[in-house]
């Protein structure tokens, strides 16, 4: 006589239908948002703004398309959320380089430039989104995206000002000009670096750091004091007020 295992029925039952992609049960909404933002970042980095669709993002995230609309509203709103996330990542990364205390002015500038190059190499998708935000051409989301881009520029300008003000009288506006120039140089060269194997990365960083150093000397209100960098640099350069060093 055949014994039926406990909990089983001698009558076979059809297996439950596989649940289609959608909002996972018991997964916090914030976790779902992060999953979709991560997927959107990858898709946007590969296909640019105009080549990205909600369908592609949903497929990459492994969720149903209605969930993306439910959590973000549409492609423009999703793009803004992705840019905001990338901006916070870059600002946190930059803050780390300004907390160091190299032995010379040139060493600190080189460390700042090298950190931006390292960010592009380590987080190419995130860097690509910030680059897309700089190039523009994304319709209704333009204003919000430009604001996100400005947050990067202002954060870097604030770091320059807080570091160099005690050493050479660098004004906030001069710090902003220097920050924009540094970002532009790093972006223009950093994104070309992988396709230009003959360019030596270390030499490239040295060249940009020297250019920034020349600009710093031109813009400083007290160049002589600036040259005595090691004597007047604060023991622990602080990030600008409002900036936070997240993960």
Offer a few descriptive terms.
single chain; 247 residues; mainly alpha; Arc Repressor Mutant, subunit A; Tetracycline Repressor, domain 2; elongated; disordered N terminus
Could you explain how this protein is built, in words?
The chain has helices at 29-47, 54-61, 65-72, 75-98, 105-122, 124-135, 142-168, 172-190, 201-219, 223-227, 229-232. By secondary structure, the protein is an all-alpha fold. The protein has two domains: 23-73, Arc Repressor Mutant, subunit A; 75-232, Tetracycline Repressor, domain 2 (Orthogonal Bundle), CATH 1.10.357.10. The protein is elongated. The termini are far apart.
Number of strands: 0
Task: State the helicity in percent bands.
Answer: 55-70%
- What's the number of structural domains? 2
Number of helices: 11
What oligomerization state is this entry in?
A: single chain
Q: Which CATH architecture of the largest domain would you pick?
A: Orthogonal Bundle
Hey, roughly how much beta strand do the residues contain? under 5%
CATH class annotation of the largest domain: Mainly Alpha
The description of the largest β-sheet is: none
Shape: elongated
- Poorly predicted regions: 1-13, 232-247
- Computed over alpha carbons, the radius of gyration is 24 Å
What's the helix-strand series? HHHHHHHHHHH
CATH homology-level superfamily of the largest domain: Tetracycline Repressor, domain 2
- Provide the residue-averaged pLDDT: 77
- Through-space gap between termini: 63 Å
CATH topology of the largest domain: Tetracycline Repressor, domain 2
């Amino acid at each position: 006589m055949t014994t039926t295992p406990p909990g089983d029925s001698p009558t076979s039952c059809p297996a439950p239908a596989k649940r289609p992609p959608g909002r996972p049960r018991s997964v916090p909404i914030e976790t779902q948002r992060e999953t979709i933002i991560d997927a959107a970042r990858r898709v946007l980095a590969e296909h640019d703004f105009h080549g990205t669709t909600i369908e592609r993002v949903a497929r990459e995230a492994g969720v149903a398309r209605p969930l993306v609309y439910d959590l973000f509203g549409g492609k423009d709103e999703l793009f803004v959320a992705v840019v905001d996330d990338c901006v916070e990542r870059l600002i946190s990364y930059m803050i780390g380089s300004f907390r160091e205390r190299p032995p010379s002015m040139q060493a600190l500038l080189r460390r700042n430039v090298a950190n931006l190059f390292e960010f592009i190499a380590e987080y190419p998708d995130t860097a690509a989104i910030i680059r897309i935000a700089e190039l523009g051409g994304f319709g209704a989301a333009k204003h919000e995206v430009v604001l996100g881009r400005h947050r990067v520029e202002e954060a870097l300008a604030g770091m320059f000002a807080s570091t160099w003000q005690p050493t050479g009288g660098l004004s906030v506006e001069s710090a902003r000009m220097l920050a924009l120039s540094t970002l532009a140089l790093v972006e223009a060269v950093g994104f070309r670096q992988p396709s230009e194997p003959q360019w030596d990365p270390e030499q490239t960083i040295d060249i940009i750091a020297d250019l920034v150093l020349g600009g710093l000397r031109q813009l400083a209100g007290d160049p002589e004091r600036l040259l005595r960098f090691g004597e007047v640099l604060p023991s622990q350069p602080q990030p600008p007020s409002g900036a936070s060093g997240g993960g």
